[in-house]
Amino acid sequence: MFLSRLLEPVKDAARAAGDTLWSIYQSGDYEAKHKADESPVTSADLAANALILHALTELAPEIPIVSEEMHLLPLRKRQDWPRYWLIDPMDGTQEFIARSGDFAVSIALVEHGWPVLGVIYWPKEQIWYYATRGNGAFKQKQHLINRIQVHQHQAGDVLKIAVSRRQPIEHIHQLLTTPASSEFIALGSCSLKSCLVAEGGADCYLRLGPTGEWDTAAVHVIVEEAGGKILDSQFAPLSYNQRETLSNPDFMVIGRSELPWTELIRAHSATRTLG
Q1: Sign of dihedral through CA atoms 166, 17, 34, 205?
Q2: Which residue, 147, 172, 198, sits at the end of a domain?
Q3: For the segment 209-236, what is each residue's pLDDT rounded down to a tens digit?
Q4: For a Cys-Cys bond, which of 16, 24, 85, 205 suits 44, CB 3.0-4.6 Å?
Q5: How far apart are CA 261 and CA 268, in angstroms?
Q6: Would residue 274 count as lying in a domain?
Q7: Are residues 78 and 190 in the same domain?
Q8: Could you give the residue ranges of the DSSP H alpha helices within the chain?
């Protein structure tokens, strides 16, 4: 009941933030700079962030908020939180600047170290992806809502892999045991590639390079409710709010869980920092 009460207001907040991003994107009137970790941030990120913070505070003032665009509290001040919001007001800032349109709003609720509600909104296509723990994953465009599931990949099928437009493909090739039997689908935004796996458009997504927990929290529950998993590069679960840093290791989003993924993808060790 608690999650169902929150879901629609969170979808509304994501849509409002996405509309703000899209309006700024269309106008081209924004400022961009680089943060300490060299990742880009724009005035559009900050505008969407302010809107989401206001909406979530109005909705549930007792729940703390962690955002990519906020100062992170030390672990000792947040490690005992029973729940908190984890948001990325614009996942895909590089795509926003490059004008591909592949950017999204990401809002998650994390309870006791595990995402339980996730909403992704893609302004370009006016599409939501969303899920609450135990209730399935859904894709919505206007009033059309469909339950989504990962692709039921069969032996002998080409393995469809979602990849970044801005990542050298040879790095992905090195992780595949049979790269010749793979097809690559280029798409911007970590969230959108993960949702592509959740809705069956790709079999997996391999992420190499720096990301934060805000990049995976919302899609984590969406992917799992669609029948998939998000694991680190050594096939172990990701964690949330367990360390001083919120940096993720390299990770993979995988579809059909019965596939022998450890025979298809080479495990590797890779921890990352966010500056």
Answers
A1: negative
A2: 147
A3: 889 999 999 999 999 999 999 999 999 9
A4: 24
A5: 13
A6: no
A7: no
A8: 2-27, 43-59, 75-78, 93-98, 169-173, 190-198, 213-225, 261-264
